[in-house]
C-alpha cells in the first residue's frame, strides 16, 4: 500500500499560506474545532435554509472526520473571518497499487467574496494535500447545472471525464 506523507500536511496546518488577493490576504489552513460555528454559518451560503447541526453534533462529527488520515476541511480566511471552504476526504483504495483517491465536497464561498479566486485557491490547496497523501486522483461532483459553476470547476483544473450517479435519502436542493 502507498505510504502517505505527513510532513507536508503538518507543515501546511502549522504554517497557513498567505495569498495576496485584490488588496486583501487570503490565509488558507485546515479547520479546527474552534472554527465550527463560523464554518456552519458559511455553509448557509452553500445551501440556504439547510438544517444546521447542533454545536454538540458538529463537534462530534468533526472529531470523527479527523480520524480519516489525510482528510481535512480547508478554510480561507480574510481578516480572521472564514470566507471560503472545501472538504477533502482521502479514501483508502485497493486498486492502483494501493494508492488512495480524494473526494472534494462542500465547496463554498461567502456570497460577498465570490469571484475573487478564493475557492480556486482552496481547491488548489486541497488538491496539493491529496497529492501529498499519495492520491492518484481527486474527484469532485456538483449538483449544479449552471454553466458558470461548471466553467468554474473546469477553469480550476477539473475535467468532466466521468459520469456520476447517486442515490439520495434526502431530496436534492433546488438551484
Automatic annotation (TrEMBL):
One of its GO terms (molecular function) is N-acetyltransferase activity. PROSITE patterns: GNAT. The keyword Protein biosynthesis does not apply. Residues 26-175 form the N-acetyltransferase domain. Keywords: Ribonucleoprotein, Ribosomal protein. GO terms for cellular component: ribosome. It comes from the Bacteria. This is Ribosomal protein S18 acetylase RimI.
Amino acid at each position: 500500500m502507498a505510504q502517505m506523507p505527513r510532513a507536508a500536511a503538518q507543515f501546511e496546518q502549522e504554517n497557513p499560506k498567505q495569498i495576496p488577493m485584490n488588496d486583501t490576504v487570503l490565509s488558507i489552513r485546515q479547520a479546527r474545532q474552534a472554527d465550527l460555528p463560523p464554518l456552519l454559518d458559511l455553509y448557509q451560503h452553500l445551501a440556504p435554509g439547510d438544517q444546521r447541526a447542533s454545536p454538540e453534533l458538529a463537534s462530534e462529527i468533526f472529531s470523527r472526520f479527523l480520524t480519516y488520515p489525510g482528510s481535512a476541511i480547508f478554510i480561507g480566511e480574510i481578516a480572521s473571518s472564514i470566507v471560503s471552504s472545501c472538504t477533502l476526504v482521502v479514501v483508502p483504495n485497493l486498486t492502483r497499487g494501493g494508492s488512495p483517491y480524494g473526494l472534494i465536497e462542500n465547496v463554498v464561498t461567502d456570497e460577498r467574496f465570490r469571484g475573487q479566486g478564493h475557492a480556486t485557491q482552496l481547491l488548489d490547496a486541497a488538491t496539493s494535500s491529496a497529492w501529498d497523501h499519495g492520491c492518484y486522483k481527486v474527484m469532485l461532483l456538483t449538483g449544479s447545472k449552471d454553466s458558470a459553476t461548471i466553467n468554474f470547476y473546469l477553469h480550476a483544473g477539473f475535467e468532466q471525464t466521468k459520469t456520476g450517479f447517486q442515490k439520495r435519502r434526502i431530496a436534492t436542493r433546488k438551484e
